[in-house]
Amino acid sequence: MFFQHLLNGIIVGGIYAMVALGYSMVYGVLQIVNWAHADVLMFATFIGLLLTTYLKMPVFAMVLLVALFASVLGMSVERVAYRPIKSGNRKMAVLVSALGMSTFLQNLAQLIFGSGTRQFKAIESKSFSFSGFTITNLQILILVVTSVMLLILYILVYRTKIGIAMRACSVSVDNAKLMGINTNLIISGTFGVGAFMAGVAGILIGVYYSAVYPTMGYLLGMKAFAAAILGGIGSIPGAVFGGFIIGTIESLGAGYISSAYRDAFAFFVMILILVVRPSGLMGAKHIDKV
Amino acid sequence: MKRRNGLMKAYALIAAAALMLSGCGDTGSAGGTGGVTPSGSSSAGSTDEKIVIGASFPLTGTIAADGQTCVDAINLAIKQANEAGGINGREIALVQEDDEGSPTSAASIANKFVDKDEILAVVSSYNSSCMLAQVDIYKSGNLPAISPVATTPALTGCSEYFYRTAPNDSDCGSYAAEFLSGKGITKVALFYENDDYGLGIAEPFQAKCEELGIEVVTVQTYVYGETVDYSTQLTATGASGAEAIFIAGCVTEQGLICDQRDDYGCGDMLILCGNGGYAPALLGYDTDGVYVQGEFDNELSEKAKDFVEAFKAEYGYEPGNWAASAYDATMIVIEAMKNCDGELTRESINEQISVITYEGVCGTYTFENCNSAKEELMFEIIDGKFVHIE
Fold first, then answer.
1. Which of A205, B93, B212, B371 has the fewest CB atoms lying closer than 10 Å?
2. What residues of chain B lie within 8 A of the CB of A258, using their CB?
3. Residue among A65, A108, A63, A104 at smallest CA distance from A202
């Protein structure tokens, strides 16, 4: 049973990691929390549902289209809600704008798609069990897709020129500008990449649980954000690591202690780690100079 | 300056969109049934005014579909009553509000209803938690309220202005245990939603299980409207040696549990859903062979058959447990109004409901401590239909 709980935890953990990356990367370059991130995920998942239900699109094409849609939506959110007000030291204004965008997307989704829970059966579920241990084709798919996506992201950030530019922006946007980097493009791209991952994660989780609803981003986003903080916000490996930690602890805690406190475990661990290491597990030590 | 103008335009656009959205919300919650009389406070007694009934149900959120089916049933009842001449020639109108399944919204709606003098009775609400939030407010305004769905034992006898056509949770819980015992089950896993409704069924269920010698091998909970991942709960259940799962909760969660059970080694277990699941939405999930509790059999009587016919003709789908209950609740209010001699007031209607004996589509109602005993029935889902088995 332990391994089963562990597996369940790793699978949700992978999803949290993919969503957490979006929070962490955006925070890395802009030092703002993109509260609309999880709602972009929700919106994209609904689009995937529509593509599957009404256009009977094959799964692979659907996922690709949804991820592209998500990144366009993510970049539009940045263009409309953040870029116009992010100049100067107006973090609070950006924060409020982010919350507004989140509420706007949620309500728009309720208006367009209705507020009920929709079923999402894009892939027929098959389970394989051996010696008391069960794994389904969906779980395998999630593991594979998550690993591939994380690998691609790693290559993008650490092995390409765009990646260097992104990392430069995360050190200092102003200095990156001086080095001839088109920072607006890079920031936009960061939103796009984060949202792309979120789009894929949204489809995975929507199909895995067969439930898509306008508030699906809320708790998922909260936990992914907790994962990003726990790993050290701004740090890419930190976000991935944090996602897996939150997922496993939640699953083991719910399995062995009580399912009533399932959601509390994630946040409890986050608080615990922040007390010991305020910058998160892998976050850079940041000293505010006065 | 140019840039700034563009910016202003963008904000104006968002503001306009936001206004539009909130505007839509308003019409959604107030509308549907032709609106309210724009009358002053003293209008309740005059003879040509409409009689207004309030309804507070979740019309957005995860159980919007269940709330809507109740409101549909209420509208049907009112329509039929109006076609039959209303109350002494006065037409009945409905004000419907969306409580989102949230106790906070429910409480503010209750205050609104109490403040509107033209509202003489209320059919409300879906969730036990919402009803608990509302019941004292209705009492303070002497406004009689009748709930078709709120089942928690905590509501029993808590107000002389509250009634329910909903069954009592303790009956549901013990009936479920008896049914499982009859099926020869000795080990059961209990799933309940972590709120007034789930607990209200879970506690008497556990007590009855103990009495009947059924071992509750694992108790799992989840959050209504939030939990979609049942991997840990089902994994624990799969390893617990349970022969059956009893789910005390609402329909979406029950459906998701049924969908996911195969993946965690619970595929062969008998599944019994509490009465929250007796709604058409459950049929969309992987639920063939699942047992569901309920209190409405559409073959029970001529009255029930007529109701099902009329409902299907009006809305194009089959009414479930709660639609039937909501229909009865509304009809009881209307009947009580007809029974009033003299002036129609909140107090006189309340007086009449408290002594009424009414033959509805789910059986006969008489209220004692706000409850009316209802016969528990068991259904099995066969080929995508609820089939009455006992």
1. B212
2. 221
3. A63
